[in-house]
């Protein structure tokens, strides 16, 4: 059994200040069971082949990091978008988060309020967008009931809607009330407002018409809910003094016997158009009417690519309003185009920073943990995201309150409210599992850039959260679910791009040096994904580990080379040949010579297999043809990897001796990717032979086949692969035709013909049945004595 894993989390950590355990002490209760579980985990720890590892990345990595998705960071870019406003200048205020300036001189008044300027109400009315019918019905309800509670998500225009409702109901003036008073003090607030109004009348202050009050984001939680008696008392005050009140609350506000109005905001495009038109009316040239100029210029600006790009992402209404101002300044020549392009991503960054702020309106720690978990499992099953977010919450509590017991509520916020807070959505989707695809409820950010931006901000902007995040990711790497381990690797890849030295020291190197293959596979996946998103110096790290003496790290380097090798196939093959020669040399160095490390040799062959089945297959084939006869290590590497690649694609059982074919738990490939039963290399041969430009590749495949059949170390495995191909031909006519073209080319001498003929006559069918009829048909194309033997070019 290998050494215990130092990175594995302790099930029951000792409390701070507790004495170290005595290694000679008798085992405590429960210790034998824990040791048995560790031994069982070690026994089940097996290396996964490179082919399955790459498909796990393709299936389980976040959408923004999947291979071939075009995802990546480049300099200040996130998936092709500018990341941050760096360089240049920004004219005017660009506020995309919450900006609060507090000047407190002396003690605050017990019930303070302030009048909303009439000019501001007029400006809001010019760009306010709503459905007139339902909105007028709400205004009628406000006139009748005097008080209205509007429930909606943050940044959906609920405050503006409240102000416009008061204006539509006939309020001559609008005053804003403090939000931090308990709901039970609402009536007292209005009494204080009435006393202030009477003082104004005594001082001959002008008053005309009803007074409207707005209370935005009332703080109503389980300790102080908003109840019906509170509103009844408020209604009495308002009726007595001819006033109206609109209260806005968030999705999580606790209401008892209160019937709130659900606020349905307009679309972002509608708000952008309305605000832009209002800005353009102000800046209309003197020679044209305001309406004509605003309509014409608005249509032109809304058709710009930067605007369509902005609308393609998920944005809040406040961000649309701010973008309309920036767009108007750009139209007037006061804002450069590159700064306008950066606006969308800057708004997202501001939202992420706002999520992690610590102020009076800060999110609870559990909600922050959910946001981080959602970033790691973006597009994954919601139940899994929520489960693992609570684990992260416990780790964050350990950092924030190290001496307090972790208190995790069993039941929390409703899924809809939670996703609304995170600007995410829930939908049904197929999730790849080891038992095949299943339909699950998945959760994903509505903006596909949010996960990357959030993880980068967390790692670089909040270093105090690193210990908890590292412990969490280490625990995810131990998980038995492939999706969880892959997301741990993907999250680490994003962190490595943001800060490579820290991610390497805290996570990747520890996994790479682990004696457990599960950890090493997470390290390899993390390095491969980090390279895909543009993290620097990953190939340099791999080259160093390949040449080093640390065998676990060497294994990780080979696996990662296999995953990223198609980007630079020639260099990768040189590294693989160097490593296998090093393995041969180390085995001969012992006295007596020791056997080769089979796991390492299999890993090297798996890397060649993956390269031959990649988009760089022709370059790889040319390299193999040029080098496989140089020495025995190079020959073994080429032929072993080649035969493993030939075994891919036929939907048959795995042969226990050769290890060819799909492995246990191997998911079926999607129908559109590779039709089941079609051997991939044979399909490649058929395509290459049909095109004169690639005929050299078909001849090269034949050369490798002849070398494998003529080598006593590989002939048995090669014949077993051909048997699998024949069985596949029994189900697919196109495979039979391709095999009928290949078999004659494999005969270089009479012995080859006899070997193939014997295989076709004696091979068992599926489940021990007699040879399938296709074997007899293929036997007719094998050259016999006296027939000319074809020679590859």
Pick out its properties:
793 residues; 3-stranded antiparallel sheet; 33 helices; alpha/beta; 6-stranded mixed sheet; 14 strands
Description of the molecule:
The chain is an alpha/beta fold and 793 residues long. Helices cover 54% and strands 7% of the residues. It contains 33 helices and 14 strands. The strands form four sheets. The protein has a six-stranded mixed β-sheet with strand order 4-6-7-9-5-11, with helices on both faces. A hairpin with a 2-residue loop joins strand 2 (77-78) and strand 3. Helix 30 (715-729) packs antiparallel against helix 31. The longest helix is centred in the last third of the chain and has 21 residues, at 569-589. The radius of gyration is 34 Å and the shape is elongated. Residues 1-34 have a biased composition (Low complexity).
């Amino acid at each position: 059994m290998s050494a215990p894993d130092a990175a594995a989390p302790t099930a029951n950590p000792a409390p701070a200040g507790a004495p170290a355990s005595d290694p000679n002490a008798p085992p405590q209760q429960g210790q034998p069971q824990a040791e048995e579980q560790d031994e069982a985990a070690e026994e089940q720890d097996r290396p996964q082949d490179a082919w399955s590892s790459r498909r796990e990345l393709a299936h389980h990595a976040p959408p923004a990091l999947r291979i071939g998705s075009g995802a990546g960071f480049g300099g200040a870019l996130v998936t092709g978008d500018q990341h941050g406003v760096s360089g240049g200048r920004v004219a005017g205020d660009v506020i995309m988060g919450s900006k609060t300036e507090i000047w407190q001189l002396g003690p605050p008044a017990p019930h303070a309020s302030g009048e909303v300027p009439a000019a501001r109400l007029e400006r809001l009315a010019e760009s306010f967008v709503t459905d007139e019918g339902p909105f007028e019905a709400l205004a009628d309800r406000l006139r009748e009931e005097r008080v209205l509670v509007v429930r909606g998500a943050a940044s959906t225009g609920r405050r503006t809607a409240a102000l416009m409702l008061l204006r539509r109901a006939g309020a001559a003036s609008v005053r804003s009330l403090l939000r931090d008073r308990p709901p039970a003090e609402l009536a007292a607030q209005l009494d204080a407002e009435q006393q202030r109004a009477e003082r104004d009348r005594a001082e001959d202050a002008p008053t005309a018409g009803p007074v409207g009050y707005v209370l935005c984001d009332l703080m109503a939680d389980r300790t102080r809910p908003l109840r019906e008696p509170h509103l009844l008392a408020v209604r009495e005050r308002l009726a007595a003094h001819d006033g109206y009140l609109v209260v806005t609350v968030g999705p999580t506000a606790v209401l008892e016997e209160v019937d709130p109005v659900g606020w349905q905001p307009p679309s972002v495009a509608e708000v952008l158009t309305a605000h832009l038109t209002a800005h353009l009316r102000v800046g209309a040239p003197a020679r044209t009417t305001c309406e004509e100029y605003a309509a014409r210029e608005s249509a032109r600006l809304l058709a710009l690519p930067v605007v369509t790009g902005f609308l393609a992402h998920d944005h809040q209404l406040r961000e649309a309003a701010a973008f309309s101002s920036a767009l108007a300044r750009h139209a007037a020549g006061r804002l450069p185009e590159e700064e306008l392009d950066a606006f969308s991503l800057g708004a997202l960054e501001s939202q992420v920073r706002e999520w992690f702020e610590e102020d009076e309106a800060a999110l609870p720690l559990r909600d922050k943990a959910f946001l981080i978990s959602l970033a790691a499992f973006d597009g994954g099953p919601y139940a899994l995201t929520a489960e693992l977010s609570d684990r992260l919450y416990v780790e964050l509590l350990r950092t924030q309150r190290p001496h307090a017991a972790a208190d995790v509520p069993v039941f929390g916020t409703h899924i809809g409210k939670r996703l609304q807070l995170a600007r995410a959505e829930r939908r049904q989707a197929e999730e790849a599992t080891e038992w095949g695809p299943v339909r699950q409820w998945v959760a994903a950010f509505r903006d596909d850039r949010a996960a990357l931006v959030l993880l980068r901000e967390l790692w670089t902007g909040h270093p105090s959260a690193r210990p908890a995040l590292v412990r969490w990711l280490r625990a995810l790497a131990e998980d038995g679910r492939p999706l969880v381990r892959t997301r741990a690797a993907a999250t680490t890849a994003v962190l490595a791009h943001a800060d490579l030295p820290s991610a390497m020291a805290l996570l990747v190197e520890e996994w790479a040096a682990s004696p457990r293959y599960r950890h090493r596979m997470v390290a390899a996946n993390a390095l491969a994904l980090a390279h895909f998103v543009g993290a620097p110096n990953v190939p340099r790290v791999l080259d160093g580990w390949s040449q080093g003496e640390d065998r676990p790290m060497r294994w990780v380097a080979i696996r990662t080379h296999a995953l990223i090798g198609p980007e630079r196939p020639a260099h990768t093959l040189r590294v693989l040949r160097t490593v296998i020669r090093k393995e041969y040399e180390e085995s001969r160095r012992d006295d007596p010579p020791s056997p080769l490390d089979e796991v390492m040799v299999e890993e090297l062959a798996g890397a060649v297999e993956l390269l031959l089945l990649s988009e760089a297959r022709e370059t790889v084939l040319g390299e193999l043809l040029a080098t496989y006869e140089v020495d025995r290590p190079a020959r073994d590497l080429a032929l072993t990897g080649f035969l493993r690649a030939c075994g891919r694609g036929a939907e048959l059982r795995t042969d226990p001796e050769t290890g060819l074919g799909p492995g246990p738990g191997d998911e079926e490939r999607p129908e559109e990717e590779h039709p089941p039963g079609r051997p991939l290399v044979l399909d490649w041969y058929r395509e290459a032979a049909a095109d004169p430009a690639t005929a050299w590749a078909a001849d090269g495949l034949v050369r490798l086949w002849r070398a494998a059949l003529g080598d006593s170390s590989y002939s048995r495995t090669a014949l077993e692969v051909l048997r699998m191909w024949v069985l596949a031909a029994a189900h697919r006519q196109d495979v039979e035709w391709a095999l009928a073209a290949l078999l004659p080319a494999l005969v270089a001498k009479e012995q080859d013909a006899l070997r193939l003929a014997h295989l076709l006559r004696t091979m068992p069918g599926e489940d021990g049945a007699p040879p399938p009829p296709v074997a007899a048909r293929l036997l007719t194309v094998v050259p016999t004595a006296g027939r000319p033997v074809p020679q590859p070019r």
